[in-house]
Write a structure and sequence with these properties.
By secondary structure, the protein is an all-alpha fold. It has one domain. It is built from 3 helices and no strands. InterPro entries: Spindly/BICDR_Dynein_Adapter.
Amino acid sequence: MLPKKKEFQQQQQQQVEPYALEDMISDLQARRRSSLDHEETLQDPSELLRQRERDLVLAAELGKALLERNQELTRQSELLADEYAAKLEIEL
């Protein structure tokens, strides 16, 4: 049996990540814009390198979060497909 809308929403609320994916994306975009604005003013190569390393770590975290979210959505989709198929078999 498919979960009711309210049950589905409760499940979704329980799966809230501490640092939402959307927040990560907007943070990365803001940092990128900020780094482009300040890149010309930063003359210290070591500071530029540290900024690039921070950006790389953030991009890796974002990629990992996207992959995990994709895997979770794939699992949910498969479960729903299985439940729907089972429901159709029962009705036939």
